[in-house]
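Render this sequence as a predicted structure.
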Amino acid sequence: MTLSQVCGRFVPRGTPGGVLQVGVRALKELARYTLAELRRLDLRPSVLDHLGLAAALVRYVRKFVQRTGIEVDLSFHLRRPLPEELETVVYRVV
């Protein structure tokens, strides 16, 4: 959706230009923030493909602790590798 479509659809006619500029800046900032959060989530990291679930979880937890300062006790026991789809689900749940 283009900016003119957004304005035509959601902004009342006669809205002052300054108000529109503030709104546009807010929308741009929201889009930037959303994209940054999506990139940070890393829903299927390459380390999952290359090193497996255990290494991906250790890396994720280490980054989480660095970012938040919250200590985490990670413990798991995998007897054999899981199917790729299941590894992705487990990673995303954690």
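Summary. The mean pLDDT is 84. The longest helix spans residues 17-41.
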